[in-house]
Amino acid sequence: MRKESNHILYNGYYIYYKKECDGSHNKTDMNPMDNELQCKRCGKPIKGGCYNAPDGPFCVDCWENKISEKAKKDYEKQALKRLQAIGFGFKTNQ
User: Fold this and answer.
1) The dihedral formed by the CA atoms of 56, 24, 3 and 1, expressed in degrees to the nearest 10
2) Torsions phi, psi for 8 (to 5 deg)
3) Please, which residues have CB within 8 angstroms of residue 15's CB and are 6 or more apart in sequence?
4) pTM for this entry
């Protein structure tokens, strides 16, 4: 059994997954429609709206009741820095 890492690099972001790969699966086992958006904090599937923080999606209940204001401000700063970097890219390509 070959143990693989629990993340892949995609478009500059690490994507983490829970399932270990033992090499015995085939392509019929992988259906992209089986993936559900889950809350990063509680792990419940998100059916309605969510907060898409830089660390991952949070359900409304976790975001409003379980995430500290300091963490929310930190997420906001991270998102603004990423948007600023994108803006600089557009500005320099003119």
Assistant:
1) 160
2) -130, 155
3) 7, 8, 9
4) 0.56
Q: Are 59 and 42 in contact (CB under 8 A)?
A: yes
Give the max Cα distance, the chain. Answer: 52
pLDDT in tens, 43-57: 999 988 899 999 899
Report the alpha-carbon distance of residue 74 to residue 79 in Å, rounded.
9
> At which residue do the structure tokens 């963490």 appear?
71
Q: What six digits make up the tokens of 71?
A: 């963490």
Q: Which two tokens stand for residue 60?
A: 């409304």
| pLDDT the model gives residue 1 | 34
**39, 58 Cβ separation under 8 angstroms:** yes
